[in-house]
Amino acid sequence: MNALDSLGYRCDGRLLALNSYENRVYQVGMEEGAPLIAKFYRPGRWTDEAILEEHAFVQELAEREIPVVPALTVNGKTLHGFGGFRFAVFPKHGGRAPELEDGRTLEWMGRFLGRIHAIGAIKPFQHRPALDIESFGDEPLRFLLSSGFIPADLDAAYRSVAEQALTGVRHCFERAGDVKKLRLHGDCYAGNVLWTDDGPHFVDFDDSRMGPAVQDLWMLLPGDRTDMARRLNDVLAGYEDFYDFDLRELHLIEALRTLRLIHYAAWLGQRWDDPAFKQAFPWFNTQRYWQDRILELREQVALMSEPPLWHVQSV
Is 204 designated active site? Predict the structure, then answer.
């Protein structure tokens, strides 16, 4: 509240911590007007330049009437400091989770994702990283194998299946070829889409980076392969009204899922000293957790050897 007060926002004492673990995000009541959202960035994760580049991308989308939530500009800036922490302020936007079973909802979301990618393809990020095998697979795996989190009796099994999985990831990328990289949302799962009667709002571009377009599509395709193929058709029906989708990227869906699984386990381990993580993820670092991860990666090894979804569609 003192941080917001330093920008001239008078808080009324109402404070609600929102569901965010990487950063600290609060809904703060105002003496006048609607509540605001204050996002305090985890120290050391992003440079100022990378955060400002994210803010600029979201503002670029908003100026083209794409439903995103840009940071508010106060005293000519979107990134502020207080008490040694960096923070940004956003207007509050409510909404519910999208109904991913509804083909019309998926087509609607596809139209906006196509518009986001059309803008994202105009120019690259200069200060934000790319989604690649090294940073999302090799590096997290090295951390996990040296961290001491994996139980000794499961270490060899996890090491073996993870290395086998990354070999499969590399084969998928080789099959896809040299696909285009563009500015992405980066973490476009249902929790980062707020749905209202007016359609979707895409929020939390904190993981925005360079990568293949399909990274923003595959997390919206739950279910078995048949369900995924049907939902993919619905998404692309809207998406391709605004941006052409390269079908070679379908080779990457299970590879990207595999990278996310390895990266997520390492993310939990790297944040384990944060008390919020021990409270929110008590099952991490248990015997059962690592047994499940081994089975999960074995399933991914099998899935990455299967034909991509568009072969299923043609049956």
Answer: yes
